[in-house]
Amino acid sequence: MRPMTVEAAHSLIPQGWNLVTEDGMMKLQRTWKVKTFMKGMEFFKLVADVAEAEGHHPDLHLVAWNNVKIEIWTHAVGGLTENDFILAAKINRLDLHQLLSRKVGE
């Protein structure tokens, strides 16, 4: 399997997500601001449940106690595959509003 092209990736980006390139690898990235540190932990638990069910595990970052960042890419191919976009879309469908300090997408 080969990583997705930039053109293909741009055509599939889920709402709220960004394409970033780090060390020559394309990744999906999204950030949220949570109400508290513990809300961040709850956020990660919800994402972890989806990721485990999918067998596809993103990088989860909690920075400065209330800034959540998720990065998704397929390590085995060194870039993006369709599975990354599926996982991002499933994360988008989670009910996270009670955890966030502002609306998703703001």
TrEMBL record:
One family name in Pfam for this protein = Pterin_4a
Quickly give the catalysed reaction. Answer: (4aS,6R)-4a-hydroxy-L-erythro-5,6,7,8-tetrahydrobiopterin = (6R)-L-erythro-6,7-dihydrobiopterin + H2O
Isomerase found in the keyword field: no
Q: Which InterPro entries match?
A: PCD_sf, Pterin_deHydtase
Question: EC number(s) in its UniProt entry?
Answer: 4.2.1.96
* Top-level taxon of the source organism: Eukaryota
Could you list this entry's UniProt keywords, alphabetically sorted.
Lyase
* Membership in a protein family: Belongs to the pterin-4-alpha-carbinolamine dehydratase family.
Would you tell me the protein name for this molecule? 4a-hydroxytetrahydrobiopterin dehydratase
Q: Which gene encodes it?
A: LOC113709204
